[in-house]
Amino acid sequence: MKATVLEALDRLVVKEIPKPEVDADSVLVAVKACAVCGSDIRMLHHGNKRLKPPAVMGHESAGVVAACGENVTRFKPGDRVAMGGDVPCGECVFCEAGIGNNCQTNYALGYQFPGSFAEYVLLNRIVVNHGPVHLVPDHVSFEEAALAEPVGCCLNALELCQVRLGDTMVVIGAGPIGCMLMELGRILGCARVIAVNRSRPRLEVARRFGADVCICSSEENAVQRVLEESGGLGADVILTACPSPQAQADAIKMAKNRARVNFFGGLPQDQGVVPIDTNTIHYRELFVMGSHGCVPRHHRQAVDLIASGKLDVKRYISHRFSLDETAAAFRVAESREGMRVVVIP
């Protein structure tokens, strides 16, 4: 089969590799769509301890079940499925508690397990039994289904933030994930959504996805403006959807008493120490948290949201490339020219 292989840092090669063979407990899926995630781009340039080249990346995907092992009962050939990234081991204390994205083994498709920038992807026993693999109704396209994975990650973050009816929410970073957070915040009942971004063109995009107020942080003081827009009190929920230390420091300053602050976007390894006034956290009784990935139930909820039509993820897809053009797809995704970039094998 044809696949895009990460052979070394900064080296993606489209080549023929052996087609995976199904054993008694696995499922073979013919991939129909796989989106490029920011983590794929980071692994291309910087690697990851969970990924050993040569390897096939890709964890935001969907396809059709091509074959099933004799012990598989959840799926059958012809099923349309969406697949996510984080795969609980199913055995540790974290997985037992239902928070498999905190699993210390930390399995994931496109990391330890081969991913979906290929014509076929094999789902092993652990993925089949515990992973984020869910049936997709016929009216949902494969491209839409592939985006259930980032939507699920956003749902995890908003659940941790305990978004409530009437909340004012700030999202710092107006890329595809930031816009998803804004739109989902609106669906969950936020009365006001404020977008903060350094680039003004991205803010115009954010307005289309539900932002009531758009603040260009390269042109004005974002903290001061958020306070003005919230009657001097600050926002109820603030999420940083960008790899910026300054965004994290600003998020604390934008927070209302008892606000929930979520550091959604990770930082580069050499920038992870951020100066923050912890007295602000202390006296305002702030809840400061991170969120990473999601668990299978979030992925299922995302599939259901997309299928219901409440979330139109087609609007997030700006570019499509063939498998032969995977390297170009990565370049466009990294350039931030559009929104989500999808590879179609």
In short:
About 30% of the residues lie in helices and about 25% in strands. By secondary structure, the protein is of the alpha/beta class.
Structure overview:
By secondary structure, this protein is an alpha/beta fold. Helices cover 30% and strands 26% of the residues. The chain is built from twelve helices and 17 strands. Strands 3, 4, 5, 8, 9, 16 and 17 form a seven-stranded mixed sheet that branches. Strands 12-11-10-13-14-15 form a six-stranded parallel sheet, sandwiched between helices. Helix 6 links the parallel strand 10 and strand 11. Helix 5 crosses helix 6 (176-187) and helix 5 crosses helix 11 (296-308). The radius of gyration is 20 Å and the shape is globular. The termini are close together. 49% of the residues are buried. The mean pLDDT is 96.
Strand content: 25-35%
- Count the E strands: 17
Provide the gyration radius in Å.
20 Å
Total number of helical segments?
A: 12
What is the makeup of the main sheet?
7 strands, mixed
Oligomeric state of the chains in view:
single chain
Distance between the termini: 11 Å
Helix content: 25-40%
State the order of secondary-structure elements, H for helix, E for strand.
Answer: EEEHEEEHEEHEHHEHEHEHEHEHEHEHE
Outline the low-pLDDT stretches. Answer: none
Q: SS-based structural class?
A: alpha/beta
**Average pLDDT level:** 96
User: What is the overall silhouette?
Assistant: globular
Topology record:
Layout: E1 2-8, E2 11-16, E3 27-35, H1 38-46, E4 60-68, E5 80-83, E6 86-87, H2 93-96, E7 107-108, E8 120-123, H3 125-130, E9 133-135, H4 142-146, H5 148-160, E10 168-172, H6 176-187, E11 192-197, H7 200-208, E12 213-216, H8 222-229, E13 235-240, H9 245-253, E14 255-263, H10 278-284, E15 287-290, H11 296-308, E16 317-322, H12 326-335, E17 340-344
Parallel strand pairs: 10-11, 10-13, 11-12, 13-14, 14-15, 16-17
Antiparallel strand pairs: 1-2, 3-4, 3-8, 3-17, 4-5, 5-9, 6-7
Helix pairs in contact: 5-6, 5-11
